[in-house]
Fold:
Amino acid sequence: MSLTNAAVGTGSGALKSVLKKASKVLTVCVEYDESAQNKGAPSLTTLELETLSMQIRKLKAAALWTSDPGKVSIFTSEQESAIGNFPGPCPVVFDGALDQIENAVSAGASAVVIDAGSLGSGKEEYESEVVWRVSSAEDAERVISAIGDNVEKSCFLVECNTMDKTTETLAALPKAAAAIASVDAMQPEDEEVTAARLFKKFGCASILVRGACVGDDEDVDYTGYIVEELTSKKSSEFNFSGLTGSANGHFGGVASSETSKWRRVQSVNA
Structure:
């Protein structure tokens, strides 16, 4: 399988079918990035990672992303344990170094992220679906031209330096493809929520929340919060949430629309 044809992996378009809903409701992918946790924090054990993987699935995240092939193996094994259950397994997407892609695929990655700039790099035979990372309309056009008819089963990750550039690049993608845009977790004034809703208007089907999970005690609360925020049809004034604990400052029921506060961010800024 050549690099260009790998845009749909085996040709199933399975990842696109998970990320792009016919209802046009946004789907939410969460990234596990241990490097983003507070300095000195211990790494999660295998059992803790398996538990987190299970919780992310039950919170109805669409996919779990990581840049660590070792984590791919743990997450994939745990997700496969949910085959036949509801919710079923989340795809595990590898978004790391190009020279680690083969290791990630061997570990069971459902898909791998490849930069548009890697077209023609000579890397081949990735037995996995590919998510193309593009940072401009020109990037998108190059990939579209290279993959031809496979575009209808493809996924594109749009990551740009500005909101305007992001919306411009989203608008350049074919409607048949699945467009993913990334936002950083726990921004001031819930700016990641505002950005995600804007991106949806430009054809974005799925949101990747960078640094949503880092291995601390707010991983589950934040994942539940951001999935609820981006997938529910609640009003702009009130949030009917079933979350417990500190995810939104309440213990279920009706929550105000005030900005959420996260200890992780407060600790970093202290």
Summary: Residues 46-58 form the longest helix (13 residues). Residues 1-11, 235-258 have pLDDT under 50 and may be disordered. DSSP finds nine helices and ten strands in the chain. The beta strands are 27-32, 63-66, 92-94, 111-115, 129-134, 155-158, 178-184, 206-213, 238-241, 253-256.
